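INSTRUCTION: Work out how this chain folds

Token vocabulary: learned, describes local backbone geometry

RECORD BEGINS BELOW THIS LINE
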Amino acid sequence: MKLTNLITIVLSISCLACCSSLQSGPPAYENTYTVENRYAGDVKSFPEIRIASTSVPGDVIEKKNITYVRYGARELQLDLYMPKKLTEGAANKLAPGVILVHCGGWRSGYRTHLTPMAIELAKAEYVAATITYRLAPEAQYPAAVYDVKAAIRWLRSNAGEFGVDPAKIAVGGSSAGGQIASLTGMTNGLLRFDPQAKESKVSSDVQLILNIDGLSDFTSAEARKHEDVPGVGRSSAGAWFGGSYAEKRDLWHDASPTYYVGEASPPILFLNSAQERFHVGRDEMVKKMDIYGIPTKVVTLPNTPHTFWLYEPYIKPAAAVVVEFLNEHFKP
């Protein structure tokens, strides 16, 4: 082989390697947790449902694909939904902010799952962001919590640009995202969950938590009945922790929001479906918060599938519950 040809081949390989290292997206893996797939399963038991619209109405502004954190070449992005009136020159008008964390069993799903909820919150004069975070195939526990805190810090850092009141920020999520949101809020100020805190004076603390059908205690017998499957990655939780309860007991405990309840914990809304298995640890957590006099609210939507936030006719009543809770604490 001629020397010039050999050099060309080497340079080509180097170029491909370089391009690969500059990828801003996640590593390739199967992500089948889509609205369409969920609908195909849920409509069999709930024939009245239809997929909620993601069309943005005229009184809401959508800003898509905003990078909120970088890890080397990896970028994580969010979509922001704002009340249009915030941009219409209302002097000193600030809106509370809400970070929304999607469902998908910690290993799949898309931020667009919570777009209908974000739109409803923007219509109610909140600034809502749906975020992408690192899923289990890319980064196991507690990476997702790091990401959510980074998103909160981003929103607070950019509060002036988007008309957000930096003193009034909530974190919420659905299913796995509800658990992540709850853990994020319950660990306000704990540096081991917030690597960015070493480099930033901007707080990642939240003032409210919205837990939509997310479990509160991985260690409970009911949670382990569904999630504690022997073999790494054989269950959603097992994939996130990298092992079963017996193998990774400390992580299963560490990720349970109920164990962080204290006198400084934020108020929390538990918005639940009619599916009992997704309420695990909720009542025990409420009792703990009652000891400290921290406000909690529990609302169950009757005759609903687990992923009710994806569908009409549930999204508007669900959003109304969320807005009422937010208004109670942020707009008394």
In short: The longest helix spans residues 3-21. The radius of gyration is 21 Å. Residues 218-255 form one domain. The longest strand covers residues 60-71.
